[in-house]
Amino acid sequence: MRVRIQSLLLCLILLPATVQAGVLPPTWPGPAPCNTTLQACIDATPDSQTISIETDAPIAENINLYNRSLALVAGEGRRPTFAPGNWISVSSAPILGNQNVTLRGLRLSNAYVRAVYLGTGTATFDFSGLVLEQTSSAPTYIRVEANSGNTVQARLYDNRIRGVPAALNAGSIELVNAGGTLNASAYYNQISSTSAVATDGAGIFVDVTGGGGGTVKLHGNTIRGGYFRSGLFVSEGLFSSTTSSFSARVYSNVVVCADPAVAGSSTGRGIGFTANNGSINAQAVNNTLTRCSSGISATQWSGGSGSAAVTGLVKNNLVVGERGLDFTPALTPSLSNDYNLLNVNSNIATPGANTITSNAQLASLSAPRLRYNSPAIDAADNATLALGLIFNSLPSNDADGLRRIKGGSGGTADIGAYEFGDSGLLHVATSANIVGGYITRIDNPVLDNRSGANPIATPNWHGGSSGGTSNDNYLGIYYFSGNWLLFNEDQTTPMPLRAAFNTFVPAAGSGSFRHVSSAANTIGFGTRIDDSTVNGLPERIVLATQNWSAGSNVYNAHPIGLSYVPAGSSGNWHIVNIDRAGGGAMPVNAGFNVYAQEASPNAFRVSAYAGGSSIALDHPLLNDTACARVQVTRLDTGNSVPRNFDVYYGSGRWRIFSYSALASGTQFNVLVDPAQVFECTDRIFANGYE
């Protein structure tokens, strides 16, 4: 039985694959002044410091960050949890200058995180990995607020909230601007209503009043439940006669409204833009909305002036529900719409010429990913999406956190929030498919007769048998006569029966490619990758598998890893033989399959700070999910690594296991495919409380 020697909880590290020395942050509980309450530790810690919370015991205190610039983060392997009802407040005096607060990896119940900036400069708020759950009537939300004369830069990333808004003009996430400048990005947050029927408020509630401005970006969020305002609600001038003008960029979000089959339920709205006297420059692009009474609305507050306007564009959205586009004509003469798929009963706005009106062909209304025969596939306006992502500096991933643009010859995007095309499988070596002793043939329609595919494989110790099967060998893959085959690169070690491999088959397109070592790009142990999807991008999540048939049938019996090497203002990723011994030089004409994408909650980097032999992956789609097919590639730290690694599942967690000891600072790139997890479990929404 495999023993877990070192278990580290997942930490999202979107940084270069270079281990950098640094001063350890203050810890709580820890030495004085952090040996009593957390608030006392905060009060005694100088500004610009990071406090690492190193306990899982309930934190039975409210936290007040008044006039403070600090970071409160979960320590490695920790899930800091506040006792029910205990909140976190970030505030400031009107004379305060700049403020900078980071909160990461904290858990609250029946409580809120509220950041209200009243100072005279700029506040920067970065809230990520927060988990809030409501089990009583206590208000439960995250709120960020700018005020007159100041600026707030806010980042809300990968937070999870379960509950209902406190009022009609409230939300589980609230981004509010009362006369200042609010530049906020809310990316990949998961919000789930605990009400079976539609309820007051919004999942994400945005309101700009009092002459405020700025830009709010909502990308990749998933909201489940019916809301009378909207799942995503963007308002100008609520209860304010002063004209405000701001921009809203709403891309690749998913809203699944209340189920109309529930007796007495109202379905709620999907995305809403509502102006009073000012203007909203709106872009609603590539969102998916199902079970809603209206998909995307653009309306005016009662009593608003004739100068109010919602301008911009509504494109590439997928709407399945009662009404598709609900625009007030006098408010929206400059709000264009086209290339939407409207599987609805009616529209108020006249659909654009390239609108599709047919069955969306979704997996289900609750899990609205595209089926293989959906008319939404490759039907989006690519230029609108691509330029929108570039000019708005938005993530290049879809709502699953995987690549947004896929497909051959430059790629064409799909309509809606999810991009179709990736697939995966578990391959298990059996007596029927082991050939030549050290080779196992994959026989699966996902890969059969697909010579142009670039599969990525990760050994799965537990995948073929309950007892686990080890294969501590250098893994390769190749294509021959209609099949892909996995093999041991040393060509001598027999492929064990029941050896298993998680195999990811990315769709063609940018980010999936092959690399071949050559005299020009290879020196010593490594070969330099030259591809626009990774060049100069050390934060990219890159995976690699040796592909014998991609090069000149060259064997490379060494464990491989990835390393990013800066070069002047740019840099390159390298594939490296990380054993660095026994003639470990990288051969010329060796082939590799490479996958690369922007980091996201489902494509991330983990570190083994304390050494040991394994790293536990604490991820809501992996926890308690034995059928998940996680993909992993090791990063090179400069230390010799003579042996290999695999992944395995036990006691509700997936882990990376290294056959040689993990040096402190060893990192791995990790990929989780949410569609694959859904297909094997029907898990629609993982709340992170397992």
Automatic annotation (TrEMBL):
Residues 426-492, 569-672 form the DUF7452 domain. It comes from Tahibacter aquaticus. InterPro entries: Choice_anch_Q_dom, DUF7452, Pectin_lyase_fold/virulence. It holds the Pfam family DUF7452. Keywords: Signal. Residues 1-21 form the signal peptide. SUPFAM superfamilies: Pectin lyase-like (SSF51126). The keyword Membrane does not apply. This is DUF7452 domain-containing protein.
